[in-house]
Design goal:
alpha+beta, Arc Repressor Mutant, subunit A, Glutaredoxin, 8 helices, binds FE2/S2 (inorganic) cluster, NADH dehydrogenase activity, NuoE_dom, iron-sulfur, iron, quinone binding
Length: about 230
């Protein structure tokens, strides 16, 4: 038995946001929280607000959310680590997600993902040295009718090939304008996060949700068969 004290290595508290940042974020947080009957219901958009500020959800952002909502850091962490849209490490300007779920995978998603990994020199969740692209393989994005798809900051790039995906990555890294196959023009990961937090999306085409021909093909077949019978 020794009377030496037992020292526990505890991790240090994260640095809080600087006062001017916190003040700005509190205004946004108040706006978000006011949309819900219970403050804790605002946690998901608040985590997006943190990603809009930091590019990921770290200790500072977790403490901020906990303070705003009267939750514990553990409660906020439990939610932030459950959903894969919240990143735990800094993210590049463009989050490139390759769908490798069943249908996209067999239609070429696996080959696209492999080609991007080789070309960019990064693996799942990693960011290129220039801070431009974070690559991830992602689950089904409900665009199977356009398989294989990749998503850049959650905008759709349909019917891709390894060649077209590499061209998109190169254009993004070169700072060229890249247009998604449908929907609104691309914005950065942090700007996207702010939109996901519930702030207005003023991009042209952002609210156009008309289904395309591949999406309606099944319905068309069913209607034709029904009319024929
Ligand atoms: S399997 Fe890729 S979008 Fe559904």
């Amino acid at each position: 038995m020794t009377d030496q004290p037992i020292l526990l290595q505890l991790s240090s508290r994260p640095e809080p946001y600087p006062p001017h940042v916190r003040q700005r974020m509190e205004v946004d947080a108040k706006d978000i929280i006011a949309r819900y009957p219970q403050p804790r219901s605002a946690l998901l958009p608040l985590l997006h607000l943190v990603q809009a500020e930091d590019g990921y959800v770290g200790g500072t952002g977790i403490d901020f959310c906990a303070d705003q909502l009267g939750l514990t850091g553990a409660e906020v962490t439990a939610v932030a680590t459950f959903y894969s849209m919240y990143r735990r490490v800094p993210t590049g300007d463009y989050h490139v997600g390759v769908c490798t779920n069943t249908l996209c995978a067999v239609m070429g998603g696996d080959a696209i993902y492999e080609a991007l990994q080789q070309h960019l020199g990064v693996k799942h969740g990693e960011t290129t040295d220039d801070g431009t692209i974070t690559l991830e393989h992602i689950e089904c994005n409900a665009a199977c009718d356009y398989a294989p798809v990749i998503m850049v900051n959650w905008e759709f790039f349909d019917n891709q090939t390894p060649e077209s995906a590499l061209a998109i990555a190169d254009a993004l890294r070169a700072g060229h304008r890249v247009r998604p196959t449908r929907g609104a023009p691309l914005c950065t990961f942090r700007e996207t996060a702010r939109i996901l937090a519930g702030f207005p999306d003023d991009r042209p085409g952002a609210l156009d949700g008309a289904p395309g021909a591949p999406t309606l093909a099944g319905l068309q077949c069913a209607t034709t068969e029904e009319e024929a019978s």
